[in-house]
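Attaching the record inline, Q. Sequence:
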Amino acid sequence: MVIIIIIIIIALANQHYQNKVESKRFMNNYEYFLDEIRQVVVEPELFPILEELRQTDLNELFCSDPEFLGSGDMRGFVWSLFVEKALYNSNFHQP
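Structure, as predicted:
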């Protein structure tokens, strides 16, 4: 029984370490992902959203401790933040 508990503790510690590594990787690539979006977005009214995302405190994004599987997931997460804000702003400003 003790061995099983030790194995579980080691697995949880390893998962926590991996999450920290991925979080750091995400923070290092965040600006790059926003630059990628900027290359695709051509509507000037969406540029302020990108600037707002650049000002986001990245530590706040990790309050819920999201788990990423790879850079595609990280990129998708940034795109989802952008799309969510763009949709909110378009609904908010409609007559």
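The helical segments are 2-40, 47-54, 58-61, 71-92. Residues 2-40 form the longest helix (39 residues).

More tomorrow.
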